[in-house]
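Journal club prep, notes for RB
We'll compare a predicted complex against what the paper describes. Inputs for the heme C case:
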Amino acid sequence: MRGGVAKALVALLLFVACERASGGDAARREGASLEGVSEDAASAGGDALRGALLAVRFECARCHTRDGLTPALPEKNCAQCHAQIARGELDVGADAATRAEWRARTRSYLNVPSLTHVGARLRRAALAAMLREPHDLRPHLDETMPRLRVSPAEAADLAAWLAPDAEARAPQLPHDAATLARGRALVDSLGCGNCHERGGDRLPAQALAVPLTPDVFARAFALAPDLAEVRTRVRRDHLVPWLLDPRSLDPRTTMPALLRTRADAEAVAAWLLYAPVAPRALRVVPARLPLLTRRVTFAEVQARVFGRSCWHCHAEPDFARGDGGPGNTGGFGFAGRGLSLISASAARSGARGDDGVRRSVLVSRTSAAPRLVEVLLARQREEAGEASELRGMPLGLRALGAEDVQLVESWIASGAGD
Ligand code: HEC
Ligand code: HEC
Ligand code: HEC
Ligand code: HEC
């Protein structure tokens, strides 16, 4: 990152730190308000009240909004700050060129699903499973849910908080061959494929009967889930109502109401639930490239990798008045690892393990690759559906390509200098 931009970013983060000092601090730290948590929910597998408290501990509000959940402080709010930058609303005295540069570079967390109404659409068990083992669910969204350290009991509590009402029994829909064919024909002609895919099946993108503004369409496109998972994810009692009128279950959803009659909606629901799914081609782990034979400087690695993908999770506390990011000073429920990637010397000073002891990330621990490279390779494997104990980096973001990994590896091999 260039010096001018760095200075402006410090100013920006100090600005938000000052802004929030103006009030409501203590109340915000107290945590989420518990409105909307029903007694029923507490008894039905998982405890919604405990879930609400866990949502505060895991800092879900740094990325998500939910009615009744106190928003994260501005300097910690990944989604809010990025959205403000994208809308050009963050005027903190940085010059126009710097702001334009930020805007051009900020891609992540511009579209994050709201958690307010997820319980009306998604099953509690699916929510718990997703929190334990997040995977790439939205084909048009680069970000995924980060892999947090959530135990099975904690996942059940969080799921009970997200989906407080029990799912009602729903009668099985007729799903003979003729019904499935009719469902598929409706999906094709109504243009569900403008937003959705289903496993390996790209659905046709017929013109939509409901006009959407470009902004709304862009958000809907990004947030549309893979329909291959409807059978495990979506509440059976609410699938047909969702198709008939998504807004009756989630007033803020961008999915348009396209189905006109219950009979049509039932045929589409039957197709979603019972038609065979073509498997999606898994992303392949890219082949590792040989080390570069030239010396690689920190500035290069910073410009292409650390200053792009690792930003704000492995920063310096000075940048944000005590918040060095979840990968440095801790956050998202993780203890502080103390790993800053803001300079070569910071990177050389390593990270703290579970035992609190600092170890180098430039040497290998369990495989032939240095720790810093191991985590990058682990993320590539996660994207290919092979999650392991080791959490892949960048956490919840697109894996680096082979050339970027090669650059990091070559920087380490050439002495990890400045
Ligand atoms: C670093 C940002 C980040 C944090 C922190 C985070 N999430 Fe997410 N979450 C995302 C993103 C991005 C998605 C959308 C990606 C996807 O669905 O594949 C997502 C998806 C979800 C979904 C799926 C919603 C849907 O409509 O499909 C749920 C539920 C969820 N998160 C719950 C939580 C909970 C509970 C926490 C706290 C324990 C949490 N998230 C913390 C970024 C985050
Ligand atoms: C106070 C505002 C602010 C907050 C809070 C913030 N960011 Fe950023 N973020 C920025 C700016 C500005 C840039 C662009 C800086 C640049 O590229 O020089 C950026 C860029 C990034 C990038 C690289 C570009 C991209 O969008 O992928 C990542 C990754 C990132 N931030 C992650 C995070 C995460 C994770 C959090 C929460 C832990 C977070 N940010 C919180 C302002 C913020
Ligand atoms: C303009 C984009 C768009 C179109 C067109 C669209 N959807 Fe959606 N759909 C979404 C979004 C976005 C969501 C996720 C809910 C949210 O984030 O508000 C969704 C969610 C769903 C879900 C719940 C899936 C899950 O795993 O959460 C189903 C089922 C669904 N859509 C079916 C359909 C069908 C069938 C059609 C065609 C009749 C269709 N959608 C057309 C955007 C769209
Ligand atoms: C969204 C936040 C986030 C992003 C982005 C991110 N990290 Fe991390 N990183 C973390 C967290 C949180 C941990 C601690 C994980 C744990 O305790 O299991 C961590 C741990 C690590 C570790 C392991 C330290 C150890 O010794 O166990 C390394 C190495 C690392 N990150 C490197 C990177 C690199 C390189 C990037 C960019 C390519 C990156 N991270 C991007 C949040 C992030």
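Talking point for the session: The pocket of heme C (ligand 4) is lined by residues 146, 305, 309-310, 313-314, 326-327, 332, 334, 337, 339, 351, 361, 371-372, 375, 391, 393-397 (CB under 6 Å).
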